[in-house]
Design brief:
Pfam families: DUF960
Protein name: GTP cyclohydrolase
Organism: Enterococcus ratti
CATH topology: Nuclear Transport Factor 2, Chain: A
Strand order of the largest sheet: 3-2-1-4-5
Number of strands: 5
Helix content: 10-25%
Oligomer: single chain
Structural class: alpha+beta
C-alpha cells in the first residue's frame, strides 16, 4: 500500500477516532473500491457506529479487502488478515 494511504489511516485514527470512541488495540478497516478511488470503512465490534471515508487515492485491485491496525500505546503497525492469528 502507498505510504500516503497508510499515513491517512493513522491520521484518521489520531484525529477522528482516539478520544471520541473507545478503541480496541486491534482495529479492522475495509478497503473499498469506490469508482476507482479508495473508501476506508470502519465499524468497531459490538457497536452501531459506522464510518466510511473517501480518500483521494487510486484503488488498486491488489489492495487487500481488509487491514488491521494494531496500537497498544507503545507499538503501532498495520497488518494484513493473513498476519492475524485466529
Amino acid at each position: 500500500m502507498p505510504d500516503e494511504l497508510i499515513d491517512s489511516i493513522w491520521l484518521i485514527i489520531d484525529l477522528d477516532l482516539k478520544g471520541v470512541i473507545p478503541l480496541d488495540p486491534i482495529l479492522a478497516f475495509d478497503l473499498i473500491d469506490n469508482h476507482g478511488k479508495v473508501t476506508l470503512y470502519f465499524s468497531p465490534r459490538e457497536s452501531e457506529i459506522e464510518m466510511a471515508i473517501d480518500l483521494p487515492f487510486s484503488y488498486y485491485s491488489g489492495f487487500p479487502n481488509q487491514i488491521y491496525v494494531y496500537d497498544d500505546g507503545t507499538k503501532e503497525t498495520i497488518l494484513l488478515p493473513s498476519e492475524i492469528k485466529q
